[in-house]
Amino acid sequence: MFVKRILSGVQPTGDLHLGNYLGAIKNFVALQNDYECLYCVVDLHAITVWQDPKMLAQHTREVTAAFIASGIDPDKNIIFNQSQVHEHTQLAWIFNCVARMGWLNRMTQFKDKAGKNKENVSVGLFAYPNLMAADILIYKATHVPVGEDQKQHLELCRDIAQKFNNDFNSNVFPIIEPVIMKQAARVMSLRDGKKKMSKSDVSEYSRIMLSDDVDLINLKIKKAKTDSLPFPSNLNDAQKRPEVFNLISIFAALNNSSPEQVIKKFNNSELSYFKNELSDSLISTIEPIGKEINKLLNDKNYLDSIISTGADKARSIANPVINEVYNKIGLLKT
Ligand code: TRP
Q: Which of 49, 135, 151, 155 gets mutated to test ligand 1 (max ligand atoms within 8 A of its CB)?
C-alpha cells in the first residue's frame, strides 16, 4: 500500500566522528542500491539546544559533504536540508496537537538531555520527537535506519501515525519499521568502552574524527584504552572487556564482517598487532572521506546546488502529503 521508502536524519552539530560514520552514514550508503532514500540534515533539531549562528550553516554543509564523500549519490537519492522544506514544520505543529503529554514525558532521551535543568531547556527539546515524526511521515517513509538510542522516538512516531489515522478515520500514514543498523550500531569512546563516542567528550583521544590524518589516527588507536590480557579467543570473553570489544566491533564494521569473525582472525595475535591492523583499516576508510569532504567544502556552489535540488525534490513529495493532511483535518489549503 505504501511504497518502501527510507528516511533518516543527521544533526549538523559539528565535527563528524567515526560514530556518525559507522553508526549511520555508512549504512545509508548501502541502502541506496535497494530503496528510494531521503537523507536529511536536520538543522531544526540541532537548534533545540544553542547553536552558534556563525557555525550552523557551515555544519549543515559539512554533513551534506560527508554524505556525498561517503558515497551517497545525490542524483539517485534525495539529500536535503530540513529547514528548507517548510512542510516539516507544518506537520510538526499538527503532531504537537496529536501526541499526548504523557507520551513525550516518557522519552528517556529528553530526561537524559534535560537532566536537572528541566525548567530551563527549550520547549523544542521536549517536542523534538514530534518534529522527528514529521520528518519521516511527511514523506510517508516506511523504513527508518537509526541507532539504538533513537528506537523510542520511532515508537512514538508509530503512535502518532496510528492516532492520526484513527482520529481522522483515514489511512494517511504508514506505521514505520525501524531498521536498527547491525554493524557497530554503537561506537563507543576509545577511553571508556561503556560511553558512546561523542563530540562533547573532553578527551580528544576518545574519538576518531572524519578529518583526522594518518598520524592522528595511528596515535589515537595506539593510545586507545585496553587491558593487559591477550586478544580474546571467544565472543563471550570479548564482551566482558568493553574497550577491547569496542575496537573489535569497529574493525568488524569497517571490514563488513562480524565480531566473531574478527576474533577468529586475530586469535593468538598480540593486541598491539590487532591495533596496527585496525589503524590501517581506519586510515584506508576515513582518510579518503576526510579529503573528499574538504574538497567539497571548498566548492560551495556545487554543494549548495545539491542542497537546493534536494529541497526541490523533497518538496515535490511533501507538498501533496501536507495538502492531504490539511484536507483531513479541515484546514483550508493555501
Ligand atoms: N533524532 C535523530 C538523532 O539525533 C536525528 C533525526 C531527526 C532523525 N529526524 C530524524 C533520524 C528522522 C531518523 C529520522 O540521531
A: 135
